[in-house]
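Input set for joint prediction.
Command: fold jointly, output tokens.
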Amino acid sequence: MSNSSLKSTKRTGLFFVLPFFLLFIALLIFPLIYSGYISLYHKGLVGGNKFVGFENYVKMIHDPLWLSSVIRVALYFLLQVPLMLIIATFCALAIDSGKLRFPKFFRIAIFIPYAVPAVIGAIIWSYFYGYNYGFLNTVLGYFHIGKVNFFATQLSSLNSISALVTWEFAGYNMIILYAALKGLSTELYEAAAVDGAGAIKTAIRIKLPQLYPAIFLTLIFSIIGSFQLFTEPLQFQNLAPTTFNDQYSPNVYAYNVAFKGQQLNYAATISFSLGLIIAIVATAATLIGSRKGEKLI
Amino acid sequence: MTSIKKRSVVVAAVATLLASTVLVSVSAQSANAAPAANAAIKKAMDTPTTLTFWSWLPGQQNQVDLFTAKYPKIKVKLVNVGSGGAEYSKIKAGLAAKAGLPDVAQIEFQYVPTFKVLNGLANIAPYLSRTWKSQFPAWISAQVTDSNGGVWAVPQDSGPMGLLYRSDVFAANKITPPKTWAEFATAAATLHKADAKQYISNMVMDSGNMNGLYWQAGARPFKMTSSTAINIKLNDAATKKVTKFWGDLYSAGNLPADPYWTSDWNAAFNKGKFLSWPAAAWGIGTVAAAAADTKGNWRSAPLPTWDGKAVSGNWGGSTVAVMSTSKNVIAAAVLADFVNTDAAAAVSLTKPPTGDFPVMNTVLSSAAFSSGTNEFYGGTTVQKNFADYNATVGKNYEWSPFQDQVYTYWTNDVLDAILKKTDTAAAVDKWQADTVAYAKAQGYTVTTN
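tokens >
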């Protein structure tokens, strides 16, 4: 290939990525820089806009409401993500084993909740969780079990949200893992079969170890997703206003600080820091999770 | 009209000359306006214009139709972008971005100062008649005007409070509608003791509902002493008394704590779990829609009082305001005014599907309004009852320019303490402290007298 044709190929390539690249800059890079920029200012309802350096960040670190929101999503991450990934991995292995009847139906049925918009999902689940006349309490009533308040405490509310989000995202993660399984070399399965390994043994001993990088990828997605918890607590707020308070998660807090509290600068500070926290947690997970000599991401 | 002072002498002089030629056919509601404005209004209403109007009021299209029938050159795009907070978030985002805002928007009374301090509202005083204010009860118009003669919104409906109650269950338990809150507490114990599944009412979980009860008890928490100075007194004796009253009822087990506006909450009215509700006038329709099975068994009474003196509070009510960003402020002002104060429009607001409680004196005192009976309330004149309570609403109530934040702190501090059965007085003090700290951070000079 001559030098000039290489150049033109490069230019063509640039042309193809341009639409994405422009949107990427306009919708991601620019807002990121802008929110970082306005987080260094303070504008009150009265008085002008002034540069305050890192004052908003200092205020945030000393803000108990902010701290409670970060601790809550960290706890939520620990409660929800392991359970969801175990279910997703189990389902992916089950479908891949070839031992299921109607595997395509099974696959779609688990995936469908992901296609339901988060707001609608939250509304559906709010009917499940209703205290007096909700579906779950009605069923418990048939068995003469007392009513359960699914949002009584912060912990029970996290469990209730965990169940909903697991329902919503297990299928999405299952599809990623299933695709990874399909990409594995089948030679090892044949060797295992020759050695007398059954479907379960093959799944645990052969498939699972090779699936590790894909599981790790879903873990990183889940870290990002769980720290950004927003829609569900906002939707549930009217069901338990003191439990799903205005600082339930960092994103809920940023939203309320911006739109109820009219403190856009402080909201930008919270959002910008959340990005930083997610980056730190994801990096830490990568460092801990990497096996020797292996590049996970 | 004081607004004429603001207008430059030259403009006024030129416009007066012009106005003398066009004054022949001015529209009814501008008949008394300043001459300069009359010419401008006539011109604006004759110019083809499209106005965007955000509102969540059911049936608002009816009043818009009356408007466009009268002003065929003006097109109105009525959009429901969500009710209350959902709409306000969009307006606040639009104000920050200086784009994407409507010309006219529905805004509750309690948020008029908020949008005013955000420079979101246009002063429409120049386009209103001299006698405009006197169409409304004084305490209503006081909430949309300022001492400099500015008018920032047009009142649409209001929410004077009364007690809606189940007369059949009350009678079966030999209870008359409580005249005082002490009687209410006694009745609460009697009713729950008679049947563990029934409660006199629900815990007041909604910040606006509780605010109406604080209002009734005499709380006047905010006073703007200048545009940058505010007096905040959320922790006065009246507020502590009301908070303790409801906290004690809840602690004693005589009230459930069901979140408002949920399907459970609606069902609780229908299934006889809640036997009364200290509600606003618009609650007449809320209960009727929620509790169809109990039709005919509900009645209304004045709110129980603290000292036997008939005083009510207010909860809710909306205005229609013109956004400061509108490029057609005059047409927008005429629209905002017309949909609420035009004789036919004002009456239609009180009819289904809207069913607003009126703010126009003429409608409040009209025979048609006060003679209307309601089958759900046993054929009583429940509307007229609320018009009577309306006359007793405590006057001179002022809202803060950050009412959302005040309510957020109320839920965090006060409601949380009630539900956890901890010290309510300390919670009210914390509410005050949080709000003061917030106001100071926003740049206000704060006093706490």
